[in-house]
Write a structure and sequence with these properties.
It is built from nine helices and 44 strands. It is mainly beta. The protein folds into five domains: 2-120, no CATH class; 130-278, Sandwich (Immunoglobulin-like); 299-420, Immunoglobulin-like (Sandwich), CATH 2.60.40.740; 522-609, Sandwich (Immunoglobulin-like), CATH 2.60.40.1140; 612-699, Collagen-binding surface protein Cna, B-type domain (Immunoglobulin-like, Sandwich), CATH 2.60.40.1140. The strands form nine sheets. Strands 2, 3, 4, 5, 6, 7, 8, 9, 10, 11, 12 and 23 form a twelve-stranded mixed beta sheet that branches. Strands 1-26-25-28-29 form a five-stranded mixed beta sheet, with no helix packed on it. Helix 3 (35-46) crosses helix 4 (54-61), helix 3 packs antiparallel against helix 5 (92-104) and helix 5 (92-104) packs antiparallel against helix 7 (113-120). The radius of gyration is 53 Å and the shape is flat. The termini are far apart. The model is unreliable at 1-6, 11-120, 714-731 and 745-752 (pLDDT under 50).
């Protein structure tokens, strides 16, 4: 039984391999009318034509799931999030959809996928464009009616390729044959330059090939990736040029022709413009003139000066020159001074002498300022004609003014020469076809913002996402026509989430471009002032961002209770990193400042008074001087712990130095002194903290014993026993009585 089943499977496999691929494809997906039909429908939508069977087209598009997608303008994304290499083949989005479809089908469909891709590939083709405007402009992009024969100018050519709809692809090209009475040397025009849109995307690239002797030639324009899936494509080319003076008529109108695709039948057409070309005129009287011109090195400008054409006799002649504040400097070794002979047109016919830079510098005739932005050239006494040539640094496209002056005892002349390079370049524009492009910028309208995520709601209610790239843009894959809703889901770091919803229309021949702005996340930064010591002011506080002064200030004073707020500050920089804010204050005399806090809590600036006082103290004695005396310092009646010792060594005087003048509440401290007790002396303190204190010590006198006095013959009043003077009387009387008593007792014993 098993053997029979295996044989059956073998037969089925063999039969399946004999079935054409188209049949298998139809078998695998009944909703698809065949691979060829699917390809044709997709190509029809890509080319901008109306689909004959809209339902078939929509069914094909829906085979590609619309999932998350993210890209910049340099990279498109399909609706399933896979990167589309739309520039690698001519298949474009249709090729991508065919690939995605086959991956979802069985292996039999994969067998025909290469055939589908090959059928969509096309070789680069010549593009028929119309020249809508052709004119000659000055280097500052103004239309010129008259030019001097030696001027450099711009050839402006506006072209239009809208007739091709969306059928323009990378590699397609057109050629412009340039006028054979103009020159396009490498010194006046770029050999290669990009043609870009307003967002900097390269729509095409131009290559200039000058003809023999730089006369005439061709501009070859090749479309790039930026043209894919765009319609209404048009642009402009600005080409720097000069006249071929051997082929123009001076002092009259000259005609100039350009031809598009001159060698391609059915694609060729010619445009003509004209301008009056003025020739040189005989010079009647001239003492000084000057002009600038470009060089092969675009970072340098060359200056030519004609000096003393009139052959005036000049004494103490000095030429001075200045570049001002342009940022340009002289190139020292480029200086050449020639003593020449001019013809009547001002052209030098012979060179009598030539002095190079080193000759002029070493002789002291040529001197430069330290910053190389001015020089003086001493010609002394002369009646000769001179040609001065030199170079300066230069930033292409900028306007550089050069001031030159001739001073002498006889003549003075000042001229201003201006130079601006003629910059070749181009611009282009085009509208999207069947796609949505989102441009995310800061509220300034120019700073691109990456990583903004948008939710896109399709006509059927399903959604997918688009995320902006580094250039702030994202372009969807090919979409079915209908109305789409776009709303921001995630804001770029440092920016507020947008709340607007945008309604965009997509058609097979038209897409939608939407610019969306975001407001930066803002913060407020409070700052307050604390005083240790008397309040002074007002005080100015500066705001710093990443250590750099922002120019923003607040003023703290009594009126605002010494507190204010920096409001509306950007929290993040353009690159998404958080800004570190700090503050500093203007110096406050007699105060130190200490800053505490942070951005989240605010900053407190504490100013501490630094004023100090000295309190002198001295000792005076009334009586003999005693040993060393210790004097204590009191602040507001409280012992500070500070002492001085007064003695003979310091002449009984010392000073309490470096004392704080104020308390934290701003009131002035009252200093006093007291001394340790001195035995046998009284103490008295006079003076004050400002004038100094004097401590006077007065000796206490010792007690003295009086001499005995003779008894009075007069009856004495019995004194009060407590009277110290009675003792002097009573004591002698008592002693006398005792003596007499003793004598009586002695005599009585003797008689017995």
């Amino acid at each position: 039984m098993r053997k029979k089943f295996c044989n059956f499977l073998g037969v089925v496999l063999a039969v399946s391999l004999m079935i054409p691929g188209g049949a298998l494809n139809a078998f695998a997906d009944e909703s698809t009318s065949g691979n060829n039909a699917s390809q044709a429908a997709t190509e029809q939508a890509l080319n901008g034509s109306e689909a004959k069977d809209q339902e078939t087209q929509e069914e094909q598009v829906k085979t590609v799931p619309e999932d998350k997608q993210s890209s910049s303008s340099e990279q498109q994304v399909s609706e399933d999030g896979a990167n589309q290499d739309i520039n690698g083949t001519r298949a474009g989005p249709s090729s991508r959809e065919d690939i995605e479809t086959t991956t979802e089908q069985n292996f039999s469909s994969n067998l025909i996928a290469p055939v589908t891709l090959m059928s969509a590939v096309a070789a680069p083709k010549v593009v028929d464009v119309n020249i809508t405007n052709f004119e000659i402009q000055t280097v500052d992009h103004k239309k010129a009616d008259t030019l001097f024969h030696s001027n450099t100018f711009l050839l402006k050519m506006d072209w239009n390729a809208t007739g091709h709809g969306t059928d323009l692809h990378e590699g397609d090209y057109f050629d412009i044959d340039l006028p054979n009475n103009m020159k396009f040397p490498s010194g006046t025009t770029a050999t290669d330059f990009d043609i870009t849109d307003d967002n900097g995307n390269v729509i095409a690239h131009a290559h200039v090939t000058p003809g023999p002797n730089d006369t005439g030639g061709k501009v070859h324009v090749t479309f790039g990736k930026g043209v894919e899936n765009k319609y209404n494509v048009k642009g402009s080319i600005n080409l720097a040029a000069r006249f071929d003076e051997t082929k123009i008529k001076k002092d009259q109108e000259n005609k100039f022709d350009i031809t598009v695709n001159g060698n391609v039948a059915g694609h060729s057409h010619t445009a003509t413009t004209g301008v009056k070309v003025n020739g040189s005129k005989p010079i009647q009287e001239e003492y000084l003139t000057k002009w600038g011109q470009g060089t092969s090195d675009k970072s340098k400008a060359e200056w030519w000066s004609r000096i003393n054409f009139s052959k005036a006799t000049l004494t103490n002649a000095v030429v001075t020159d200045s570049l001002g504040s342009s940022g340009m400097t002289y190139i020292k070794d480029s200086f050449i001074l020639r003593k020449v002979v001019y013809d009547k047109m001002g052209e030098d016919t012979s060179v009598l002498e030539e002095y190079k830079a080193n000759d002029l510098i070493n002789s002291g005739k040529l001197k430069f300022s330290a910053d190389m932005t001015s020089f003086t050239l001493s010609l002394g006494n002369t009646s000769d004609q001179y040609r001065l040539i030199y170079r300066t640094t230069y930033v292409p496209g900028t306007v550089l003014k050069n001031h030159m002056k001739l001073d002498s005892d006889q003549k003075q002349k000042e001229v201003v020469a201006t130079y601006q390079s003629a910059e070749s370049g181009g611009s282009a524009s085009g509208d999207l076809a069947s796609k949505i492009k989102l441009i995310k910028v800061d509220e300034d309208g120019t700073t691109p913002l990456k990583d903004a995520v948008f939710t896109v709601t399709k006509p059927d209610g399903s959604t997918f996402e688009l995320t902006t790239g580094a250039d702030g843009t994202v372009t969807s894959g090919v979409l079915v026509q209908g109305t789409y809703k776009v709303k921001e889901k995630t804001a770029p770091k440092g920016y507020e989430l947008g709340t607007d919803e945008y309604t965009l229309q997509v058609t097979p021949t038209g897409g939608a471009i939407q610019k969306v702005t975001n407001k930066p996340t803002k913060i407020s930064l409070p700052v307050k002032k604390s005083w240790i010591g008397p309040k002074v002011g007002p005080v100015t506080v500066h705001l710093l961002a990443d250590g750099t002064d922002t120019g923003k200030t607040v003023t703290l004073n009594e009126a605002n209770s010494w507190a204010d707020t920096f409001s509306g500050l950007d929290k993040y920089k353009a690159d998404g990193t958080e800004i570190v804010y700090t503050v500093k204050e203007d110096d406050v005399p007699n105060y130190t400042g200490a800053i505490t806090g942070d951005v989240a809590s605010g900053f407190t600036i504490t100013n501490t008074n630094t004023e100090k006082v000295n309190v002198p103290v001295k000792k005076t004695w009334v009586g003999p001087k005693a040993g060393p005396v210790t004097v204590h310092l009191l602040a507001d009646g409280t012992d500070t712990g500070k002492t001085v010792t007064l003695n003979e060594a310091n002449s009984w005087a010392d000073t309490f130095s470096g004392l704080d003048k104020y308390k934290a509440d701003g009131t002035e401290i009252v200093y006093t002194v007291k001394e340790d007790d001195v035995a046998g002396y009284t103490s008295e303190v006079t003076g004050d903290a400002n004038t100094g204190f004097t401590v006077t010590n007065t000796q206490i006198p010792p007690h003295e014993t009086p001499k005995p006095k003779k008894p009075s013959k007069k009856a004495q009043k019995v004194p009060y026993t407590g009277d110290a003077g009675v003792l002097g009387i009573v004591v002698p009387l008592t002693a006398g009585a005792i003596v007499l008593l003793g004598a009586g007792i002695f005599l009585g014993k003797k008689d017995k």
